[in-house]
Amino acid sequence: MIMKFLVYGDLHLKPAGSGYDLDKMVIPPDIDAVLILGDLIHRAGEDDIALAEEFVSRFAADLPVIYVPGNHDPASTEERVVESIKQAYSGHEKVHQFDQVSVVGWGCEKRTLYSNLDQTNYEALDPHGVPHKHRRYTANKIADKIEAACYDVICGSKTTGDAVESLEIEPCEEATFHREMAVVETAYRQLAEVLEGTEDVLLATHVPPYNTSFDRHHAVGSRKQHLEFVHLGSIAIKLAVRTHDVFGSLSGHCHSYGYDVVTHDENQPPVHYLNLGFRGIATLRVSPQTNEFVFERANTE
């Protein structure tokens, strides 16, 4: 059986000139549910919430709408938006069970987000020490090492001390590293608890998983030059995907379109990672039983 979703990411609607015309909303036929991946609105003021309510209320009364909060509309903004709308639900730390798919949502609880493990804090993990033309390649290789080390510690039998050694963390950096690793592990445990016992999961998050083709900062080139090429997604989300029955991961936040298909375990089907980018809209057809994952992006220009 195939399930069809309508997915929205990072619309950033604004009461005064949203840049997205609600009157031009197109709702394709045969949609089974709507997923909003956060940052539906650019602020969480009263006028913004009213605009979000108008957006969500435009869907048919019998069409489920799952709203995952972003950092611009952090929890419990989404609860205020959906509370008076039939078949509209908060997606934060929730499991929504459909016949073919378990949709698990994981959003943001505050506006300002910090990297769960800021590799620019560590000399050996900062790619900016190499020539510019080699930085993207270096950043990708470092991300592979960080993901592997975190997996071995949080999901395996290694210690944080082992990770310090394998990642060549300097003695003066160890305290910060231990603290940041503890934050990653706490987030992983919280998400793992939500995922516990679920099957055929489509994971809907605002922040993207770590170490994908798209988890970089959208402001690089202006105020965030020091983060150029650095992977900024959630390590906790990536580890949760790898250790649970997740066949697809949808995310937003980074404003960069990307689609990755990754085999984490040769005995399991590959995982689909999709980010629709800034004001991204798509229809998505999925069947976890056959690993079908087919999407069509809408033209939002």
Outline the secondary-structure elements.
Blueprint: E1 3-9, E2 33-36, H1 46-57, E3 65-67, H2 77-82, E4 88-90, E5 94-97, E6 102-106, H3 135-155, H4 160-166, H5 174-195, E7 201-205, H6 235-243, E8 246-251, E9 257-262, E10 271-276, E11 280-287, E12 292-297
Parallel strand pairs: 1-2, 2-3, 3-4, 6-7, 7-8, 8-10
Antiparallel strand pairs: 1-11, 5-6, 9-10, 11-12
What can you see in these coordinates?
26% of the residues lie in helices and 21% in strands. With 301 residues, the chain is α/β, with parallel strands linked by helices. The protein has one domain (3-297): 4-Layer Sandwich (Purple Acid Phosphatase, chain A, domain 2), CATH 3.60.21. The chain has a 6-stranded mixed sheet with strand order 4-3-2-1-11-12. The protein has a 6-stranded mixed sheet with strand order 5-6-7-8-10-9, with helices on one face. Helix 3 crosses helix 6 and helix 5 (174-195) packs across helix 6 (235-243). The two termini are 33 Å apart. The relative contact order is 0.16.
